[in-house]
Here is the input.
Amino acid sequence: MKISSNPKALLPIAVFLILYLGSGIYFEYISPAEDRMGFYVMSVVVAFGLALIVAFLQNRKLSFEEKIKVCARGIGDDNIVIMLFVFLMAGAFSGLAKQAGGASATANLLLDVVPDGFVIPGLFIVACLISMAMGTSVGTISVIVPIAAEVSASTNISLPILVASVVGGAMFGDNLSVISDTTIAATRTQGVEMKDKFKMNIKIALPAAAVTLIILIIYSFSQSNTHISDFDYNIWLAVPYFIVLILALIGLNVFLVLGIGIMLLGLIGTIAGTITFETAFTAMGDGTAGMFETMVVTILVASISALMKEYGGFEAILSFIRKHANSKRGGMLGICALTGMMDIATANNTVAIVIAAPIAKDISDEYGVEPKKVASLLDTCSCVFQGIIPYGAQLLVAAGICGISSMSIIPFLFYPFLLAICMIVSIVFDKS
Here is the structure.
């Protein structure tokens, strides 16, 4: 039976946006405090929980038991279940890598080979590689930005451009990494292989990265010769990251990739003496615990999305897009606009993807957009906006480490803006 369009079914999302975005704006700009980030005062889990309650209160034609069944079907979708399992493994890998010292060893190894006079583009490249290997832009920023601050303090190079180079590289890697939660969310919700999404994404991200690198090299020529201090590292602790990166690029199943990475980190970390049997399991537990909020949000959003779709909310969005986009390109632009709005509202690219993905899938079916293209657009668009909003975790963490304003970084964020241009060009000249 065809579901009728019902804009009122979108009320849960409106409630979420008012609660989360409203409290974020209030605590960040109206009533700020030095020891907190305004957009993290209200938990995204609480906001979505209240939105789910609103969804349950709607549509009295369905009983409470029937609504529970609708939620269960949404949560039990194959792609959602696989996504949750991958989140757990990615968390275990990240936690173990942090404890073993793999992240810092890899960063120091790469920075040690950066030639003099190539500091700014060098930091960009290092951030790209580290983020692809780690699968987290915030983690990469946390590792590399302190080094950027150290470089700025010992040279005449502007701190904001150094930090912006790191943020740009971190977003590049986050967008392409097969163990990034954004990649996992984008591919699993659309039912596509990670390698196929990677091939689609690299066509958009690589030109943006190349132009960014050229701009940074040109800028470097205007600076006096600089040198990054020598760093200590254990090359063997960096090996698991490079192996994970290679295995991921050749298209090995993500579960195998993460499983091999975890075993290698455990083995090498034990031999190197950076972890013990006890600390290894504790670190993996901490890593998976760090994924719990993302997993809970995924479950809540899957439930809300299932109810909104059942009530006719998705059909309302599709009807709106049909009125304003009567072509395949229009459908793709609609996906980008929807994802961008969700990221601006939630300040979380993974959450934005999870919210937009079900509707994007319907748009894909409606306009014949390839699922791998949809996954690419979801991930790329969310990375564009997440990389430039001043209240997102990436810029707030980077600014907080350096003691500067997140707004001062934005003018030098060449990569996210170029990525947006490349994404639009890929839509306009799409031949699929």
Notes: The mean pLDDT is 82. The chain is about 75% helix and 0% strand. The CA atoms of residues 24 and 41 lie 7 Å apart. Residues 194-221 form the longest helix (28 residues).
